[in-house]
Write a structure and sequence with these properties.
Layout (H helix, E strand, L loop, with lengths): L1 H10 L4 E7 L4 E10 L6 E11 L1 H4 L7 H22 L12 H10 L4 H13 L7 E7 L3 H18 L3 E5 H9 L1 E2 L5 E4 L6 E6 L4 E8 L2 E7 L5 H11 L7 H14 L29 H13 L5 H30 L3 E5 L6 H14 L4 E3 L11 H13 L19
Parallel strand pairs: 1-4, 4-5, 8-11, 11-12
Antiparallel strand pairs: 1-2, 2-3, 3-7, 6-7, 8-9, 9-10
Bound molecules: 5'-O-[(R)-(carboxyoxy)(hydroxy)phosphoryl]adenosine and zinc ion.
Length: 415
C-alpha cells in the first residue's frame, strides 16, 4: 500500500494520464485525460471521451431500473474503454498474453459480473497495457449495483496494469465541473476558486447545499428530505407526457410559457395552476419537492383535459416554484455563510432559468461573490469530471486508498 502511495506521489509531480470511469446511474462513461499543474493551475487535456446514455432503455420504467443499469454497464464498459483508447491513439495490439495468475485475479474480482469478465479478458488478451498512471473511478453516491460494476472494472484494470485505482466522490465531480472552463475544445483549465465555496448540487439523485472550506473539506448544510429536484422534473415530465428524463423538456415548455406569458392570463380559475413553495420558512437549508409534484398531480386530476396550453401553464408554474425555492435557500445560505464563490453542479444546472435567477440573486445580495456554472458539456454525468476530481482530490489530500483490495462502492457515500 505505502509503496503504491509513493509511486503515485512521484507521478503527480509531473503530467499524468488518468483513465476515468463513471457508472453511478444510467450513464456509462470512460475518459482518458492528461492532467498537470498544482490545484490552482490544474489543466486537463481530453485524450479520449466515450459515453453511453441508457436513458432510452429506462424510459419505459419512468426512472432508472437498477438491474438493467448494472447489466448495461457490464455490457458497455469494454466497448467504451476501447473507443476512448482509440481516440487517444493508445490502442495497440498485445505483445504478451494474460498469465494464469492474472486471469485468476480477474476471475476473483469480476465473479459477480460474468459478462464483464469475458469482455475484459478478451480485451486484455487483444490489447497492450496503455501508458496510464492511474485509474479514477466513481465510488459513490449512486445506485450501488451500478457503482460496483465500475469499481470492479477499475480494480481489474488496476490489478492487471499495475497502476493505482483512486476512488472519487461523484458529487465532488459535479463541483469540479463548475470550476473548470474550456479555453478550447478538448481542454479544461481550473479557474481561480476562492474559499469558502458554497455549492448548490442539483441532479436526479441529489439536491444539497454544501459548504467547502477547502478542497476535500465539505459540510452539507442542507439537503432534500424527499425527492431530488431532477427527480421532481422527471416525474412532472411523465405526468405531462414529455418522456424520460424530462427535465430539459419541462424547462423548454416553461421557457415558452414565460416568453408568451400564458401563465399570467389563464382563461379561468380552473385552468390556473398555483403550486406551493415548500420549506421556504423552515429556518434551515433543507428542501422538499415531493409536495410540489403531488400538487401537480391533483391539478391535472381536476382538469377536464390535459391540453397543450394546460401543460405549458403547469410547466411554467412548476419551474417557477422549484427555482424560487432553490434560489431563496441559496440566498439565505449566502447571507449566513458569506462564501467567496458559489458553484452549481449536477444535471439540473443545465437549466437556463435557474442559471439566470441565481446570477440575478447574487448580483443583488453579494455582487463580489463569484458564480461558477459548469460548461454545458459537463452538467450531466460524465467521466471527465471523475478524472478531474480524482486529480484535484489527490493533490489536495492523501488519497483515500490505492489498494484495489480496499476499493468499495458506497451508494450512500457523503461528501
Ligand atoms: O447529474 P445528472 O446527469 O444525473 C444524476 O446524477 O442524477 O442529472 C440528471 C437530472 C435528470 O433528472 C434530468 O431531468 C435533469 O438532470 N435535467 C434538467 C435539465 N437537464 C437535465 N432539469 C431541469 N432543466 C434542465 N435543463
Ligand atoms: Zn450526477
Amino acid at each position: 500500500m505505502w509503496e503504491l502511495l509513493a509511486v503515485f506521489y512521484i507521478n503527480i509531480r509531473s503530467a499524468m494520464k488518468i483513465l476515468a470511469i463513471e457508472t453511478s446511474c444510467d450513464e456509462t462513461a470512460v475518459s482518458l485525460l492528461e492532467a498537470g499543474g498544482d490545484i490552482e493551475s490544474a489543466h486537463f487535456s481530453v485524450l479520449g471521451n466515450a459515453l453511453y446514455s441508457q436513458a432510452q432503455l429506462h424510459s419505459k420504467y419512468g426512472g432508472v431500473y437498477p438491474t438493467l443499469a448494472k447489466r448495461e454497464h457490464s455490457h458497455n464498459l469494454v466497448p467504451l474503454l476501447t473507443d476512448a483508447l482509440k481516440q487517444a491513439g493508445m490502442l495497440t495490439p498485445a505483445t504478451n498474453t494474460l498469465t494464469d495468475k492474472q486471469t485468476k485475479t480477474l476471475h476473483t474480482l469480476l465473479v459477480r459480473e460474468p459478462t464483464l469478465f469475458d469482455r475484459v479478458v478478451e480485451f486484455l488478451r487483444t490489447f497492450e497495457a496503455p501508458a496510464i498512471d492511474v485509474v479514477a473511478v466513481t465510488r459513490g453516491p449512486g445506485l450501488e449495483p451500478a457503482l460496483w460494476v465500475g469499481v470492479n472494472f477499475a480494480r481489474a484494470l488496476s490489478a492487471v496494469w499495475n497502476v493505482p485505482a483512486v476512488p472519487v466522490n461523484h458529487m465532488e465531480g459535479h463541483i469540479i465541473s463548475a470550476v473548470v472552463h474550456p479555453p478550447k475544445e478538448h481542454e479544461f483549465v481550473m479557474e481561480q476558486t476562492n474559499f469558502p465555496v458554497l455549492a448548490l448540487l442539483v441532479s436526479g439523485g441529489h439536491t444539497e447545499l454544501v459548504l467547502a472550506k477547502a478542497w476535500g473539506d465539505y459540510t452539507v448544510v442542507g439537503q432534500t428530505r424527499d425527492d431530488a429536484v431532477g427527480e421532481a422534473y422527471d416525474k412532472v415530465a411523465r405526468m405531462l407526457d414529455l418522456g424520460y428524463p424530462g427535465g430539459s423538456a419541462v424547462a423548454k415548455l416553461a421557457a415558452e410559457g414565460r416568453r408568451t406569458a400564458f401563465h399570467k392570463v389563464a382563461s379561468d380559475e380552473h385552468e390556473a395552476c398555483t403550486l406551493p413553495r415548500p420549506m421556504l420558512s423552515s429556518g434551515d437549508f433543507n428542501f422538499s419537492f415531493s409536495g410540489i409534484k403531488t400538487a401537480v398531480l391533483y391539478h391535472i386530476k381536476k382538469l377536464d383535459s390535459l391540453t397543450e396550453r394546460a401543460k405549458m401553464l403547469i410547466a411554467t408554474e412548476f419551474e417557477s416554484a422549484v427555482v424560487e425555492v432553490l434560489v431563496k435557500k441559496t440566498k439565505k445560505a449566502v447571507e449566513l455563510h458569506q462564501p467567496k464563490t458559489v458553484v452549481v453542479g449536477g444535471g439540473v444546472s443545465a437549466n437556463s432559468f435557474l442559471r439566470e435567477s441565481l446570477t440575478n440573486m447574487l448580483q443583488d445580495v453579494a455582487p463580489s461573490t463569484a458564480l461558477r456554472l459548469p460548461d454545458k458539456t459537463l452538467t450531466g454525468d460524465n467521466a471527465l469530471m471523475i478524472g478531474m476530481a480524482g486529480y484535484i482530490a489527490s493533490r489536495a489530500t492523501v488519497p483515500e486508498t490505492h489498494d484495489s483490495e480496499e476499493l468499495h462502492a458506497d451508494g450512500a457515500l457523503r461528501l
